[in-house]
Amino acid sequence: MKDNKISMAVIRRLPKYHRYLSQLMDRDINRISSKELSKIIGFSASQIRQDLNNFGGFGQQGYGYNVEALYREIGKILGLDREYKTVIIGAGNLGQALANYTNFSRFGYKLQAMFDVNPRLMGLRINDVEVKDVDLLGDYVRENNIDIAYVCTNRSSAQQIADILCKNGIKAVWNFTPVDLVLKKGAVVENIHLIENLFTLSYFLKENE
Amino acid sequence: MKDNKISMAVIRRLPKYHRYLSQLMDRDINRISSKELSKIIGFSASQIRQDLNNFGGFGQQGYGYNVEALYREIGKILGLDREYKTVIIGAGNLGQALANYTNFSRFGYKLQAMFDVNPRLMGLRINDVEVKDVDLLGDYVRENNIDIAYVCTNRSSAQQIADILCKNGIKAVWNFTPVDLVLKKGAVVENIHLIENLFTLSYFLKENE
DNA sequence: TAGATTGTTAATCGATTAACAATC
DNA sequence: TAGATTGTTAATCGATTAACAATC
């Protein structure tokens, strides 16, 4: 997109900007300075200006930033100006929880189908989306140009599922299994490693005592 | 514990060491050098040695590290050498998913009770744990010395729940809601902000095209 | 002993903060 | 215009990598 490489640290802060700007919009605030934003979001004003200037001059000297315009710009950077076709693999509690999140759909992540190995789940509709046989996954992903797959299987089938997804042109994998998936070069991955987060939490618990 | 302040970056790598060491144990490997570990875990050998030396000399020159001993040491650092009493607030799909994770229990995180506002869920047993009325939450946490609360409510009640938890002596909060909770000084928090992770994923998807 | 590999110091790299000229 | 606040450069801080003496 823009110039060169934006650092990972900056990228991971963008969604938080997006969320706080949305809150400001809800409160009908349409103008904010880096200093004021700093107070509510907790990043330094200097960091906020540096972060935003990676992508262009969104502010105005003497005025600050227009909340709604900045919200939209950051949305665009994150790729929220388009829709994504998604599937869920693993229709257990977690898969069902994700299927029921209206928030994802609201931001353009459109769930097309769910897949499972369990015959008892097949045909079930969750939030109006059908659970299909996982054997159909590869063809479905290819034929429907699925963008993102949420992998909620158990640990042991995760890599095998990832292989099928990659072979059929998946662009992104959202991995909820405690495994580091190996993907083809065309695909990107983000991990939700719950247990790692929980371990970190108990570390901090001890340190805080 | 040890000397002074360990950096956040190091702490967040510890669970990954723990996981890979566990895999090595499964493969009956009982000795590993930083160089070999580097190859499978993806951190540089130098970084591995630096990380581990924050906590003490776990290795032996000319030999490397004993896998099982290192695994146990890291577990101890993360606080896995004790048990934690946990509760889940919000017995929807996500709460139920977390209640069913046998992995957490295996590492000492013992689920004591679940809470919900929905009367239809009350009395239900999930993985042998009862769903109680959320009105009982405060008393339960205080009387049973609950260590960690998994907050799986909706966005709007999250902070209110957090206040009740803090008032009754919770030590750690695992937050699954898209809100930055404000806690009393005695409590620590880790966030699973799903939507932020998903936004980051679509950013990378675009960059990778 | 010789070889291997750690523990640790020094060098480098990258990210955050501070400062201020540009400008609305 | 005067005041405010950005955009951007420079300074600082922290984390990662490289190097090597210590030592098993």
Rough shape of chain A? globular
* Average predicted local confidence, pLDDT of chain A: 96
CATH architecture of the largest domain in chain A: 3-Layer(aba) Sandwich
Strand order in the largest sheet of chain A: 6-7-5-4-8-9-10
Summarize the largest interface: chains and residue counts.
A-B, 55 and 55 residues
What is the subunit organization of this protein? homodimer
Enumerate how many helices of chain A there are, as a single number.
9
Radius of gyration of chain A: 20 Å
How is this structure best described in words?
Two copies of one chain form a homodimer. Chain A is α/β, with parallel strands linked by helices and 209 residues long. Chain A has two domains: 8-77, Arc Repressor Mutant, subunit A (Orthogonal Bundle); 84-196, NAD(P)-binding Rossmann-like Domain (Rossmann fold, 3-Layer(aba) Sandwich), CATH 3.40.50. In chain A, 44% of the residues lie in helices and 19% in strands. Chain A contains nine helices and ten strands. Chain A has helices spanning 8-26, 34-41, 45-53, 67-78, 93-100, 102-106, 137-143, 158-167, 194-207; strands at residues 31-32, 59-60, 64-66, 84-89, 109-116, 125-126, 129-133, 148-151, 172-175, 188-191. In chain A, strand 8 (148-151), helix 8 (158-167) and strand 9 (172-175) form a beta-alpha-beta unit. In chain A, helix 1 packs across helix 4 and helix 2 crosses helix 3 (45-53). Chain A is globular, with a radius of gyration of 20 Å. The model of chain A has no long low-confidence stretch (mean pLDDT 96). At the A-B interface, helix 1, helix 5, strand 10 and helix 9 of A face helix 1, helix 5, strand 10 and helix 9 of B. The structure holds a DNA duplex (24 and 24 nucleotides).
